Amino acid sequence: MGLMKHHFLWLLVVIAALWLRPETALAQDTAVVPDFRHMKIDNPASLSDAGALAIYSQIQVELAKTFARSGLRIVNGYTSWQIYNRTPYLSSTHGDRYVNNFANNLADGYDSLKKGSKMQAGAVFAKDGFAVTKDGEVLPGRLFVMEKLAEGANPDTGDWRYISIENDGSIIGDSMNDPQNIMAFCHICHKVRASRDFLFYVPPSQRLP
Ligand code: HEC
After folding, report:
1. Mutate-to-test residue for ligand 1 from 144, 174, 176, highest number of ligand atoms within 8 A of CB
2. Residue whose CA is closest, atom 11 of ligand 1?
3. Ligand 1, atom 39: closest residue by C-alpha
4. Model confidence over 6-23: pLDDT tens digits?
5. What pLDDT does residue 11 have?
6. What's the pLDDT tens digit per position in 150-206?
7. Top-confidence residue, 208 or 30
8. Whose CA is nearest to atom 5 of ligand 1?
9. pLDDT (tens digit, 9 = 90+) per residue, 136-157?
10. pLDDT at 5
11. For the CA of 92, the nearest atom of ligand 1
12. Which residues, including other chains, have CB under 8 Å from residue 44's CB and lie 6 or more apart?
């Protein structure tokens, strides 16, 4: 009887926990990203290419909607631009997120960068993605943006503008209006590729045929 009672109490605790949990999760989601679906996966440590793609295809619409709320017109409709990677891949340089590389139709030559390559003004690159926590929770990532400005517009950054949009649609930083230099680190790293107009392109294993 003692054991039965014990079990019964635990059952109550579990029911209470299940009852409360979705509500808290929902409340958090509403505060941060209104439409974002709460997702969990089973083996967070080992996302296969197919697994990463499956998650991304479920959250892409929400991600795009969220970033559209930033009002940043240059990335409007970025999910319909050319994508240059096969599946989302882990990028340690962009917050350990599974990321994609999209580029608009002015980004001629992105897939054939060589010494001396230069993008034309108006070329825009957008890198969206998501993170997966140790518990398997899927979290929307930020949108990392590079825009090629008119020649001479900003010689310090090779005429590139760097922008980060938070996963709630707010603009975290914009190198064109950056009194505290919080975006400088983007270009500092991208400078490694100065000879190729500061662009890296996608890792070889992720390139499209
Ligand atoms: C420590 C180095 C590093 C930092 C810091 C960094 N990047 Fe990158 N970036 C890369 C690498 C490497 C790639 C290509 C591989 C990948 O996607 O991870 C890349 C790719 C990109 C691309 C796709 C265009 C390309 O170069 O092929 C965009 C857009 C981008 N980064 C934006 C940003 C923005 C915005 C920031 C700052 C908020 C930033 N990056 C900070 C290393 C960096």
Report:
1. 144
2. 200
3. 186
4. 666 565 555 544 444 433
5. 58
6. 999 999 999 999 999 999 999 999 999 999 999 999 999 999 999 999 999 999 999
7. 208
8. 186
9. 999 999 999 999 999 999 999 9
10. 61
11. 18
12. 132, 133, 134, 135, 136, 137
Distance CA 200, CA 198 (A): 7
Which of 63, 141, 159 lies closest to 97, judged by CA? 141
Q: What is the pLDDT of residue 7?
A: 63
CB count within 10 Å of CB 90 equals 15
186 Cα: distance to centroid of ligand 1 (angstroms): 7
Farthest CA pair distance, the chain: 82
Instruction: Ligand 1, residue 142: give the atom nearest the CA.
Output: 38
Q: Please return the burial class of 44, using the count of CB atoms within 10 Å of its CB with bins 0-12, 13-18 and 19+.
A: middle
Please give the Cα distance from 99 to 144 (Å, whole number).
10
